[in-house]
Specification:
Elements: H1 9-43, H2 79-85, H3 96-105, E1 114-121, E2 127-131, E3 142-144, H4 147-154, E4 162-164, H5 170-173, H6 177-180, H7 198-206, E5 209-213, E6 220-227, H8 231-246, E7 251-258, E8 264-266
Parallel strand pairs: 3-4
Antiparallel strand pairs: 1-6, 1-7, 2-5, 7-8
């Protein structure tokens, strides 16, 4: 026969006590874990636990419409200019005498307008000098390159129409070439503005000597030949002398105009 275990009252009480202790330990362990979890949540940054944000729907912004104007786009002409323009036959090439008679009728300014000729040449790079019999009606401001003049140019001050220099000044003028070059004011042997005696050259320019040169990239000359007040005879002599200096072989066509008039095509 097997062994028979006999349980006494004292053993049962001891076992019950042991169960209570184990149960108490489990509850304490759960309490500790709960406390740790709560502590972690409380210490977490507020930005990590965000309440549900309200979604805002913004209305689309109205785009501003920008009107682009091309650089070469011309401003609209006035009605008065249109009326004058209609007096010029665009299909006709006028003699110099006819053109000058018409030019007087096209005046609309209250001042003595400047007379100009615009010459299309066969090639760019055409240049030269000429002294008009009656001048241009405008006093030419001539400066001789000195340290003081160069200093003023560096500051952006240009108080001359022509700059003359002796060869020794050219190395100093190199630092302002970027200012003078685009304006066509840089002294050059081609137009005679570099000379051992710049004072003599300056007197010639002040006396009416004119230098001309086509645009840098276009075969086009813009030349001043006098004022409306000169009258037909003087303007004729000035224009003929100017065209002679440019040379007929270099000319494609010529347009005559004043400051505010339409252009008139000339026979060459």
């Amino acid at each position: 026969m097997g062994k028979i275990r006999v349980k006494t009252f004292g053993d049962e009480a001891e076992e019950l006590e042991e169960k209570k202790k184990l149960e108490k330990k489990r509850e304490e362990k759960k309490a500790r874990q709960k406390a740790q979890t709560k502590e972690i949540v409380e210490e977490a940054p507020q930005e990590d636990i965000k309440p549900e944000e309200e979604v805002k729907v913004e209305e689309p912004k109205k785009e501003k419409v920008k009107i682009k104007v091309k650089k070469d786009q011309k401003a609209p002409r006035s009605q008065k200019y249109g009326d004058l323009n209609n007096q010029v036959d665009k299909t006709k090439t006028y003699t110099l005498s006819e053109a000058l008679d018409l030019l007087v009728k096209l005046q609309r300014g209250k001042f003595d307008e400047t007379v100009e000729i615009h010459v299309n040449t066969l090639t760019p790079g055409i240049s030269g000098n000429v002294t008009l019999p009656h001048g241009t009606g405008k006093k030419t401001r001539v400066a001789i390159a000195t340290d003081a003049v160069i200093s003023e140019i560096e500051k952006g001050t240009i108080n001359f129409d022509i700059l003359v220099a002796e060869p020794s000044q050219m190395s100093k003028l190199a630092k302002v070439a970027r200012i003078l070059g685009p304006k066509g004011l840089m002294p050059s042997p081609k137009n005679g503005t570099i000379a051992p005696k710049p004072e003599e050259v300056a007197k010639k320019y002040e006396g009416g000597l004119i230098s001309f040169k086509t645009e840098a990239k276009n075969p086009l000359l813009h030349l001043t030949v006098g004022k409306i007040s000169f009258g037909k005879e003087k303007l004729t002599e000035n224009i003929e002398e100017m065209l002679k200096a440019v040379k007929k072989a270099n000319i494609v066509n010529v347009t005559l105009k004043s400051t505010m008039s339409p252009g008139i095509k000339l026979k060459v």
